[in-house]
Specification:
By secondary structure, the protein is an alpha+beta fold. It has 14 helices and 18 strands. The chain is elongated, with a radius of gyration of 26 Å. The chain binds adenosine-5'-triphosphate and magnesium ion.
């Protein structure tokens, strides 16, 4: 097999994406890729070839190629890798409107004939066990491309708005989101944990870098099976000095709107195949609607859903509320006991915090959590004690309120939660290539 650097434009091979854009009509091309599907009828093989940039139909007529090539192609198994050359033709009958009429074909690897993923219904467990092969499916390709684009356009927005990317450690010693979902790791002869959020470190870094963001994995030992919790997920987090609750909600409105509009422009085809009308995203504009936690509780109780003031909104409550909205909306001013210790109590009503979660509509629920952080040393110390946390473990974090404290706010957006909503997925596991769930760390 000849090693070829696909970054070299002069490798002699064309990308399927290029061909599908109409660039080579009536020209001769060479492509290489995987046999995604095949059917034959009346002396013609119809090959669907996938090369990582797209899928194209390639037709091979018996009388247009050497007999050995036609017979070999007859035996060609799904997912075999091939190189082929031929003429590009515009043809409205072909998927995407273009096809290659094949003149030559070379098999690079004849795949085993028992590719496990067939054109029939497979249960979710089967597809998860065969995830390494299932990610080749059209559905997963579309989701993974949208995922990459979401992160690309988010970074674009951060660059345009002069944020600095910052990286916090993954191995940590002090919890920030509650001990029950901490993953314990043996760290030589002591215990450490996998990070749940960059929060505490981000607050240190704003005094160095100003406005910052990160896109990094977070880990939560979520013990319940839900459709919206992974144990390892990607977290897009922002922290900003000199920023209050209203300011941080504005930032989220602008960032998310930018991301959604860019996706509707650049990923319209992929979105449609997943059942999402790009127009749903394009019409979303700031400001987003805002209701308080108190109002949310009133709505729930009025609608016959028993809910006690003080509890955190769970799946059932959020689903109920989000079905009333067709755009993302904020719920603000959560009670102290429903939020992590670092959330700033509202000076006018200390039993609630200056917090806001952003909920996606259509039954999806929370996609970001955030708000204003405590900037006073004594208030922070009192909150740590109230939560039975040992101030010794948070000594360095407390220092930040001794040396140049500043009003500051931030939020964390769950990348997979956001993808699940945008792509209308039934389960968060399909928003990531290799999901980690309570009962799954393979493959
Ligand atoms: P939930 O109440 O739904 O468990 P949370 O309040 O624990 O969420 P935060 O600690 O505020 O979530 O985390 C910020 C964001 O990270 C959430 O808004 C959500 O989008 C995402 N997130 C949190 N936990 C998970 C998880 N286990 N899997 C995927 N995304 C998550
Ligand atoms: Mg949680």
């Amino acid at each position: 097999m000849q090693p070829i650097n696909r970054n070299c434009r002069d490798s002699g091979f064309s990308y399927v994406r290029e061909i599908m854009s109409g660039k080579h009509v009536n020209g001769e091309v060479r492509i290489h890729g995987w046999l995604h599907n095949k059917r034959s009828s009346g002396g013609i093989h119809f090959l669907l070839i996938r090369d990582g940039t797209g899928i194209i139909q390639c037709t091979m007529k018996r009388d247009k190629v050497e007999p050995e090539i036609f017979d070999l192609t007859d035996r060609l198994t799904l997912e075999s890798t091939v190189e082929l050359s031929g003429t590009v033709k515009k043809d409205p009958r072909a998927p995407g409107g273009f096809e290659i009429q094949v003149k030559e074909l070379k098999v690079i690897h004849m795949a085993h004939g028992d590719f496990p993923i067939a054109k029939k219904y497979h249960g979710p467990d089967f597809l998860l066990d065969n995830r390494h092969l299932w990610i080749r499916s059209q559905k997963m390709q579309n989701i993974l491309r949208i995922r990459a684009k979401i992160l690309e356009v988010a970074r674009e927005w951060f660059r345009m708005n002069e944020y600095t990317e910052f990286h916090a450690p993954i191995l940590i010693t002090a919890a920030c989101e509650g001990g029950s979902t901490l993953f314990n790791v043996k760290y030589f002869d002591r215990d450490a944990y996998l990070t749940q959020s960059w929060q505490l470190y981000a607050e240190a870094a704003i005094a160095s870098l100003g406005k910052i963001y990160t896109i990094a994995p977070s880990f939560r030992a979520e013990k319940s099976r839900t459709r919206r919790h992974l144990t390892e997920y990607w977290h897009l987090e922002v922290e900003i000095p000199w920023c209050d609750l209203n300011g941080i909600m504005k930032v989220q409105e602008e960032l998310l709107t930018y991301m959604l509009h860019r996706l509707s422009e650049e990923m319209a085809g992929e979105l449609r195949t997943l059942g999402r009308d790009p127009e749903d995203l394009r019409r979303i504009e700031p400001p987003f609607e805002k209701i308080t936690y108190d109002e949310a509780v009133d709505i729930l109780n009025r609608d016959g859903i028993n809910f006690e003031w003080g509890d955190d909104l769970g799946w059932i409550e959020e689903k109920h509320l989000t079905l009333k909205f067709d755009s993302p909306f904020f719920i603000t001013h959560y009670p102290k006991e429903a939020k992590a210790f670092y959330h700033k109590p509202d000076p006018e009503r200390p039993e609630v915090t200056l917090s806001a979660d952003l909920l996606a509509p259509e039954g999806y629920g929370e996609i970001t959590g955030g708000g204003q952080r405590i900037d006073d040393f004594n208030v922070l110390l009192k909150r740590l004690e109230e939560e039975n946390l040992n101030p010794e473990d948070y000594k360095w974090y407390l220092d930040l309120r001794k040396y140049g404290s500043v009003p500051h706010s931030g939020f964390g957006l769950g990348v997979e939660r956001t993808i699940a909503w945008i792509c209308k997925l039934d389960h968060i596991r399909d928003a990531i290539a290799f999901p980690r769930l309570i009962n799954r760390v393979y493959p």
